[in-house]
Specification:
This protein is mainly alpha-helical and about 110 residues long. It has helices at about 1-30, 40-45, 60-80, 85-110.
């Protein structure tokens, strides 16, 4: 019985790490740096696709995919714990903290 509990615990830790890593990846995928560089734009261009729905304007596809991926990472993170609502709250607090940090770095001109 103890071995099964340990396997479930390891699986939950992996899901939480995957969720947190996916969130960080999605933030950088859909975020444009102060220098104008956006990883998502580079991926779209390397695939031969336009990152915008119009000609340089309209919907920004990397941003939309980044937001959807971030929501998916939050769901994935919350499924990795027993008390899902508490974990979801902690994850949201961490995500908001990361967003505030990125915003602060953007204000002072780091990113």
């Amino acid at each position: 019985m103890g071995n099964e509990t340990q396997k479930i615990s390891q699986k939950n830790v992996r899901m939480r790490i995957l969720g947190a890593g996916l969130l960080i990846f999605c933030l950088f995928f859909g975020m444009q740096m102060k220098s104008g560089y956006c990883f998502g734009v580079e991926v779209f261009r390397s695939l031969g696709l336009s990152p915008w729905s119009g000609n340089g304007q309209g919907l920004f596809y990397p941003g939309i995919l980044g937001i959807l991926g971030a929501i998916g990472s939050m769901v994935l993170f919350s499924f990795g714990t027993k008390n899902r609502m508490r974990s979801f709250r902690y994850f949201m607090e961490g995500a908001l903290g990361l967003m505030v940090l990125c915003w602060g770095l953007a204000l002072i001109g780091v990113v």
